[in-house]
Amino acid sequence: MDYKQLIIRGISYSQTQSGAYALLLEHEETHIKLPVVIGNFEAQSISLGLEKDIHPPRPLTHDLFTKFIVSANYELVSVIIYQIVDGVFFSNINFKNKANDEELILDARTSDAVAMAVRFDAPIFTTQQVLNEAGILLELEDVSKEEQPFSETAQSEDNLKAVSMEELQKLLDEAVKEEDFDTALEIQEEIKRRKKKID
């Protein structure tokens, strides 16, 4: 089957479901976006998986499963979003045994599959049919405001702008220690913005 590769464009608050988030995947060639409604925990887990340099003091469920996969001598090869039924996406996670190349395919919720894929830097694919059924064309400008997944208000961003870099690092360490990942990701984004200005 001819699969279409997707990239993660961002995570934003869901406009349709209260307390949920929208994971925005995009087919790079056509710019068709695939919005997947996910829960708060999964949104945090995907964001932490993308960040790489924020490490919770205790492993999250997806981190634990990642360690198990590696310990069992498997690698995550790809994620395939193969179907959508009544607005629900169906996905497979494809593994390969490093010792004998034996393949293992597990059914998974799409949010869990993506959370695992980002931890292995594995590609995410879908079918043309899924893109036809659920894909939408959005201008990037519409999305850019929403790409900061856990920024509650502009006021909180302004508060962070008034804090020194050294103080930001302390706040980041404290937030991670307390497992307040919403705040940690917010602070991390501010640190990144400042480092880009310096570069």
From TrEMBL:
InterPro entries: BFN_sf, Bi_nuclease_dom
Domain BFN: 3-138
Pfam families per the UniProt record, alphabetical: BFN_dom
UniProt superkingdom: Bacteria
Transmembrane segments: none
GO terms, molecular function: nuclease activity
Protein name: Bifunctional nuclease family protein
Protein source organism: Chryseobacterium antibioticum
Organism classification: Bacteria, Pseudomonadati, Bacteroidota, Flavobacteriia, Flavobacteriales
